[in-house]
Write a structure and sequence with these properties.
Elements: H1 2-17, E1 33-38, E2 46-52, E3 59-60, E4 65-70, E5 73-78, E6 80-84, E7 100-106, E8 116-121, E9 128-132
Antiparallel strand pairs: 1-2, 2-3, 2-7, 4-5, 4-8, 6-7, 8-9
Amino acid sequence: MKKVAFIVPLYILVLAACTNDLPHPFENRQEELIINALLNADSLYNRVYIHKTGWRKATLVKDARVEVYVNGDLKQVAPFTELFYPDGYYPNPDGPETKFESYYEVTTPFSPGDRIRIEAISANGELHAWRGDNGAGKESNTCSRCRQCGNVGISG
């Protein structure tokens, strides 16, 4: 009984001693665009997925401008596409079956060795994302034209 009388107060003391509030890493964080691209040199039907960061999950962006540059030249502004599937054809492992798939369709032909750059700019021009080569053989840190950078044309 003495052992229990000693352990219970010690247990309560240990639990009550740690009361530091840790800041949440997502407080005051700006929204960002996310680019996920599936590109193959031997395909004329490639896909680019654009999402916006959020509190609990990323949300699909349907109204972005997605530009595809090959070797520094603008080749295509990719259109938004939604494919609808019959019941049970396209299962969603996270919940109920989804009936559609949404993406930006890239039909620009690529060749092995091409330098590809994809830029996405939100409809209001506030959010932008880019990934790829700037046409000079190196990664660029600025987009072609957004309000935050103020650049016009491909920077190099």
